[in-house]
Amino acid sequence: MERVYLFDTTLRDGQQTQGVDFSVEDKRTIATALDRLGLDYIEGGWPGANPTDTAFFSRAPALTGARLTAFGMTRRPGRSADNDPGLAALTDTPAPAICIVGKSWDFQVRVALEIALEENLEIIGDSIRHLVAKGREAMFDAEHFFDGFKANPGYALSCLHQAAEAGARWLVLCDTNGGTLPHEVAAIVRAVTREIPGGRLGIHAHNDTENAVANSLAAIDAGVRQVQGTLNGLGERCGNANIVSLIGSLCLKPDLRDRFETGVDAEKLTHLTATSRLLDEILNRTPNRHAPYVGHSAFAHKGGLHVSAVLKDPRTYEHVPPEAVGNRRHVLVSDQAGRANILARLGEVGIALEPRDPRLDRLLDEVKEKEFQGYSYDGAEASFELMARRALGEVPNYFFVESFKVLVERRYNARRELTTVSEAIVRVLVDGDRLVSVGEGNGPVNALDAALRKDLGKYQSYIEDLDLVDFKVRILQVGSREHGTAAVTRVLIESGDGAGNRWFTVGVSANIVDASFQALSDAIAYKLFRDGAPAGTGPAE
Length: 541
Description:
This protein is an alpha/beta fold. Among the domains are: 2-264, CATH 3.20.20.70; 300-373, no CATH class. Helices cover 37% and strands 23% of the residues. An eight-stranded parallel barrel has the order 2-3-4-5-6-7-8-9, surrounded by nine helices. Strands 13-14-15 form a three-stranded antiparallel sheet, covered by helices on one side. Strands 16-17-18 form a three-stranded antiparallel sheet. Helix 5 (117-133) runs parallel beside helix 7. The longest helix has 19 residues, at 512-530. The chain is elongated.
């Protein structure tokens, strides 16, 4: 088996993503998580280029296995390496490894640098020798290498040779604009390995043709032994090679697993899903449910026939075991579901029913009728669990909403600014006591949420950390057995709590506020049930 070294560039390339701005603490948290996962190199950023990266290297986290890497560029034309401020900023850091980017496309040398081709080679050699003399592991990132090789293979290879002869440990072939396809990458890498050993070559692929992971795997197959990427494929434009998918494939796919080893062992691999989702938490964005290996839906099964097959032998529809990457199987419930779906989903939440239990058929019929009306339970698992447990008599009556009213007022404030204010009034019975709450919000649903959770009597302590995370609305044309086809609103709400739990609930009505109320009520009832709140004595909801 040959060693493939994993190089993560999330903290630099990822920071170039539109809308992404890591703090120093964000970078420290991500670096620590990547180190725990088993990465070989973690690129911390470009010291001297911005205050955040400079501060990060001045307070660099103590890594246990990975080598912290600083990124920069070759010396500037007209300066010596000893007097170049960019190189000085790199060697002033404690980073044991330094990766510098330089031109390898003759077109870029002439147009961007406006220098002679021979001078560019001198710049590359001088810069690498300077880093090696400072005791650092030097790497050369050959910018635009694949475009350069296509235009002038001799010159592109000369850039690599110059860096190699100066002492660079790694020569990284960069597909800077992401336009190269897998068959081209494979052919060019094979051509390079005829002159330079693959054990000194790396691949850095961008995703502009949706081929960054494929290009990276093609390069590994052709000979490179270092692969670079970012968590969840973060990066400018269309992103970079997704290091999560690369790790999953290298560690689990037999053709790769049996040929190559990485620093990610079986135990560390179980942290892959958590590491991917940690990045989304830091960025305050919803994880991609359909992301390979780590997405919530990566091992989700909806069709009845599929579920029956996967329960007999998971290999039927799962290419790897979900628990190997820290994920889990999800059996979805929908109007396409069969008895196997319902049984499997009930089993996941601890409800054991015999396959011939008559309540199972009634529950399946109810699911299909509800979905015919516009409900969707394949994404609202909390609402499905509540519906199932209510049908089995397992959910207590916690509170009863007598009525609610929502007002939206558009007016001028004291500064003569036009504002819109929403106010909600909710009347709730808890153990026979009537509780009236008023809430304001930046919209009717926000106001209703505030009023509903303002005072629930003895249940208030259970919902103090409840938070409405996301809110989605969809207008549907659906049918009903009684009224034919009509337009209704479906609201899907994601809720969370202080312990990091997340759950989804759904509501459907011709009125958006009523649909929202259904989903909000389910969100509260689910948390009360999950946390073991005592039953109430008021009338049923």
